[in-house]
Design a protein that fits this description.
It is a single chain. 31% of the residues lie in helices and 29% in strands. By secondary structure, it is of the alpha+beta class. Strands 1, 2, 3, 4, 5, 6, 7 and 8 form an 8-stranded mixed β-sheet that branches. A hairpin with a 2-residue loop joins strand 2 and strand 3. Helix 4 packs across helix 5. The longest helix has 13 residues.
Length: 160
Amino acid sequence: MTYKIISPDKCDNSQLQAFYDLVVSGGQVMVEGLADKIKAADFLSFCEIDSEIVGVASIKNPNPNYKNRVFKKANVEKSADAYDFEIGYAVTKKEHRGKGISQKLIKILMENSNSKSFYATTKVDRMRHILSKIGFKKFGDNYQNDNKESITLYNYDEKK
């Protein structure tokens, strides 16, 4: 397994396309505007096995309106300004899950970031488990997204 962390502006088109395709295959995000959001990320991380990208994750630069809405829905609105970056788009191909790939990708991103405070949201139990193992804590109340799915907000602050 090879792990890489790359700024989106340093990725070639095939890397960006592979990242996009894997995120879409995870079925957890809206496709509209996704390519631009990936390009706007702070960093992208990749896991390759035999030159095949099998896992991805990113440090996202969230739109302030989106971030404020998330924190408001979780009833911790006043804390939104403490978190500049969101961990997201963490997807591992089904046949490679359970090997710690997403956990390693997220750790690599966090270790290479100038920030030490992050947040993440998820509706997936296995991602809740991964975030908890890394040191993220449930933050605020669960809330429902537009599809009536239960979303959990997590925060990570190395200083606390």
